[in-house]
Structure formats: C-alpha cells, structure tokens
Amino acid sequence: MCGLEAKVLTLQEQLTQLTLELLRERSERSEQRLSALEALLSAHPGRSSSAQELMPLAEPRAHRPLAPQRALQPAELRARSRVLARVEYGAQGRYVLICPQDGALAFTTDSPEWFDWLASLTSFRFIGPQGRFSAYREGQTRSWKAYRTFHGRSHKRSLGTTDRLTIARLELVAASLQSEMTSLS
Questions:
Q1: One pLDDT digit (tens) per residue for the chain, 185 residues
Q2: Which of 31, 88, 145, 182 might form a disulfide with 127, Cβ 3.0–4.6 angstroms?
Q3: Is 160 helix (H, G, I), strand (E, B) or coil?
Q4: Which strands sit side by side in the sheet containing 153-161, from one edge to the other?
C-alpha cells in the first residue's frame, strides 16, 4: 500500500506540473494574440478603438500562429467523457480547475463562474491539502455526495446543493473523510 500511495503521489505531482505547463502555454498564446491585435491596431491609426470597430479585426483567424486542431475521433471523445473534472490544490497555494473538454479554467473558486461550472457537471474529483474525494450529483437534483473508497469500503458524506459547494465546504468534507481513513489504518 505504501508503494501504491507513493506512486499516486508522484502521478499527482506530475499532473500538477503538466497543468502548470498548460497554464503557461495558454498565457503565452494569449500574449501572442494580444500582440497580433496591437499590431493590427497600430497599422490602422485612423480607426477608433470602440468595441464595434475592433470586432472585424479580431475575427479573422489567419493571424493566429497556432496549428489548426483536428476533429477528435470517436474513441477520443469517449475517453474524454470518462475523465472527471478536477479541483486540485496546486503547488503555488491556489486551486487549479481542470475541465476535460476545455483544459485549465481561468476563473477563480467561489465566483459566479465557479458555481455555473459546477452546475454543468455531474461529477468531479477534489484534491485538497487536507484530503481528497470524488463527488457526484444525486440523480437529477442539485444535491451532491462525496465518496472515497478505502480497504474496499466506500465512505460517503453529503456535500449539499450546488450553491453551497464552496472551497471551504469541500476542504471540510475532504478533511473529515481523510481523518476517517487515518483512523481505519
């Protein structure tokens, strides 16, 4: 079990590093896009900077230096549909939100975007500094359950409704499940 836990920890660290690399790459892409837009704006000094006039400049994708993305194969789509969204405590002391379809998300926890995102999910994985669990929505309701399996037994806790899924609540439940796991060891 100790060897397995060490391997899981190593995999989690590698996933965190990959996520951080993805965030860095996404930031570089944004900088490239902004530079291209600024170059277009400076090439047209007589134009005003109103949002309506900027839209035609931003629409063409020919200026993007990124390679076109190919359509996903059916097997790739099925694989992505099985991957859970993740809320993971990162190395820099803040949470990283990872969506299987969109990658790392830019909004912060406990924001209106956070609650909207959670409302769109049926399940997710939470990995915090005090513990971890998987969460799932109970049927077609707004209520969520947290569960963690240990020694072949599933341990569950109620998380509450979507509008109450704050980071503080998730951390509290993760710590509660972790203490239960520790007492069973």
A1: 888 888 887 888 788 777 777 767 776 776 777 666 666 666 655 544 443 343 343 333 344 444 456 676 665 555 445 678 999 998 888 899 988 888 889 888 999 999 999 999 989 999 999 999 999 998 888 899 999 988 888 899 999 999 999 999 999 999 999 988 878 76
A2: 88
A3: strand
A4: 103-104, 95-99, 85-89, 123-127, 132-137, 143-150, 153-161
| Cα dist from 165 to 86, 96, 119, 146, 153, whole Å | 14, 16, 10, 11, 25
Q: Is residue 148 in some structural domain?
A: yes
DSSP class of 164:
G
CB 147, CB 109: distance < 8 Å: no
In a domain, 69, yes or no: no
Q: Which two tokens stand for residue 85?
A: 């969204």
How many domains are there within the chain? 2
Q: How far apart are CA 98 and CA 133, in angstroms?
A: 15
Q: Which of 125, 133, 88 is nearest to 109 (CA)?
A: 88
- The whole domain housing 168 covers 74-185
Residue 30 within a domain? yes
Helices marked H in the chain: 2-43, 51-58, 74-82, 112-120, 167-184
